[in-house]
Amino acid sequence: MTRARRLVAEGLGTALLLAVVIGSGIMGERLAGGNVAIALLANAIATGAGLVALILMFGTLSGAHFNPVVTLSEAWQRNMPASEVLPYIVVQVAGAFAGAAAAHLMFGQPVFSAAEHVRTGIAQWWSEFIATFGLLAVIISCSRSRPGVTPFAVALYITAAYWFTSSTSFANPAVTLARAASNTFAGIRPDDVPGFVVAQLLGAAAATRLFCWLYPPATGGATVAGTVALSEFAKRSDVRVPGNR
Question: So what's the pLDDT on residue 226?
């Protein structure tokens, strides 16, 4: 698979993800008649369904990260070369803004407009830490034990996290940046973006460190299509886990 194909897949997937997130937020708000709970439910279900489709669509091409913290975690685990991290993040951010613009145009909104939705404070930052920690935990644990279910596990987690976090689970710096340019139901005030991104980075780092310890890399001959038995995990001294030297 050439780098160009991987980058196009990653950028397009992120764009479609943002179109789903923002578009379903606008549609949900319009149809809910002022009922924020119904709007959020519609937004969450559409996002989860879209994620399953997009991960299945692009997973074999780019890995379907659609998220800078996932890319950073994959590089930390040595699942991808460090030289690809920056290109991935660039196309993820560009794709996110393209997807936001596409959603706005579908609903007759300005292509970009600064969001006014206030999302700040310790509770929201802690929510973003937990949301991102959980997302990376699901990705690492499932991809190392039962990879076939990973797309569904990720989508179900994000759907749930819309509801159990006060921030409604952005868990993605590219998504956060693009949503700051969307003065819609899904928006976030630009001033509040740095706090979210810092919390996301910290949550991703904590999850990567812990879950790479809980789920060491399997040996070359291990079967990982189902649950991996502890006896199958590598115990060789040459296997490195993030944080070990």
Answer: 37
